[in-house]
# Entry
Amino acid sequence: MFKAKAYSAASKTSPLASAAIPRRDPTERDVQIDILFCGICHSDLHYARDEWHEVMPAVYPCVPGHEIVGCVTKVGSAVTRYQAGDLVGIGCLVDSDHTCRHCQEELEQFCPGMVLTYGSPDRHGTAPVTYGGYSDSIVVDERFVLRIPPNLDPAGAAPLLCAGITTYSPMRHWKVGEGKKVGVVGLGGLGHMGVKFAHAFGAHTVVFTTSPGKTEDAKRLGADEVVVSKNADEMRKHAGSFDFILDCVAAPHDVNAYINLLARDGNLTMVGAPDKPLPVAVFGLIFGRRSFSGSPIGGLAETQEMLDFCGRHNITADVEVIPVQKINEAYERMVRSDVKYRFSIDMASLKSE
Ligand code: NAP
Ligand code: ZN
# Structure
């Protein structure tokens, strides 16, 4: 066991602060990684503040962070896929049961025995729960380590590990592509990746935002049209026209307004995870045989596929790189939708703690 530097929250009301955490020495199948960058996902904030208490109660101290890019420093004796010096990524999962139907279908995100990067019981007994990527290092089973294409900027690649796969996976599932009209609701970390993918897949891409000031950015990111969702006339123009809408909003909002924009057989997928239930007017679904669904992250194979796709198309997140000491300020800005479009923590800043 060794001590790593980290930023952790001691309770749902405490700011994140510097702490030392235990990490296991790499076992046979493990890879030890020096973390270079870690993205800040809104899920980190929901979890650290225990906003998802009813579904996923937080355990403290908690070290969030599941958008990790780093450099391999050590590997266990049975590791075959990685060696010291490799640029690698860790997303939201660090283990699963490897045997269930979902694991066999390479859909580990549905495994009942999945181990999340932070907040899951630690099977190795190093700590009560797993600790995430707001840290200078992490040790992970090689089967949950991903390869980062070398042409991608590591700070901008980090958010691909959650925001990237969470938007890529449902778009692939619902066959977003040429000839399809696709909406992306909420231009934050997930939303801006959704726009990049929808555009790269060749769909006609429409962004819905509550922030008029994001219009030009949305177009630069690949949107064909931008709708300020508070404007009812603009919303009405798109009624009944979408094949697919990806809702990336982190707070309670009216999903019926978007269900009504779907074409016949259209689908609205929630990836945004507000802490409160969202009322759904079922007639909006019945008339038009529309569907309303959700999607969690993605499996390991699909995450690697997404990273390779990003490597070929030179896609990374638009990031504001911050030192770890600015995490709490970044959280406050995220609550105000003031992120362009993902914070990526430069872990070199942890050295001075
Ligand atoms: P984020 O960067 O904070 O972006 C959320 C965006 O939602 C904001 O930028 C804003 O966009 C919009 N928004 C915020 N409050 C709103 C409100 N009251 N009404 C309408 N729109 C509002 O968050 P994120 O990191 O992208 O995460 C988004 C959500 O996805 C979070 O709930 C997160 O937990 C969840 N998530 C889910 C998964 C999964 O596996 N399903 C994975 C990762 C994250 P505009 O300014 O454009 O309106
Ligand atoms: Zn996330």
The two ends are 20 Å apart (CA to CA). The first strand starts at residue 2 and ends at 8.
